[in-house]
Amino acid sequence: MLRPGDVVIVSVQFTDASEMKVRPAVVLSEELGNVVVAGVTSNTSMKGIPISRSEGAIKDSIIKLNYIFTISEVMVQKVVFHLSTPKKRLIYEELTKRLNWLAV
């Protein structure tokens, strides 16, 4: 069972749906086999929330909160590690800021 804060390896389609690629992602939620994830990149010059090797990442990376998508749980290949509570709280705070305009 996947938990919010799991860093996973997933299969996702290219934008043009021509091929699949394997990428890391962070689980934001899971319900009824649908998994909402945020993409992760090793391009540390991108904006987002950093995760480091000392936290369990294979490489220093960035959680891209501007790249959120839903996948089927069967697309999750494996769980790599789990984020700390402070890191999960930071993700929640950043997502809340980004979605705050919906309340206006």
Q: Can you walk me through this structure?
A:
- The protein has 104 residues and is mostly beta strands.
- The protein has a single domain, classed as Roll (SH3 type barrels).
- Helix content is 14%, strand content 48%.
- It contains one helix and six strands.
- A six-stranded antiparallel beta sheet has the order 4-5-3-2-1-6, covered by helices on one side.
- Strand 2 and strand 3 form a beta hairpin.
- 19% of the residues are buried.
Features:
single chain; about 100 residues; mainly beta; SH3 type barrels; six-stranded antiparallel β-sheet; 1 helix; 6 strands; globular
The stretches of 5 or more residues where confidence is low (pLDDT under 50) are none
Please count the helical segments: 1
How far apart, in Å, are the first and last alpha carbons? 35 Å
Order of neighbouring strands in the sheet with most strands: 4-5-3-2-1-6
Radius of gyration: 13 Å
Count of the domains: 1
The portion of residues forming beta strands comes to over 45%
CATH architecture: Roll
Order of helices and strands: EEEEEEH
CATH topology tier name: SH3 type barrels
Layout: helices, strands, pairs:
Elements: E1 6-13, E2 20-31, E3 34-41, E4 49-51, E5 61-72, E6 76-82, H1 85-99
Antiparallel strand pairs: 1-2, 1-6, 2-3, 3-5, 4-5
Describe the structure concisely for a colleague:
With 104 residues, the chain is mainly beta. It is built from 1 helix and 6 strands; from the N terminus they run ββββββα.
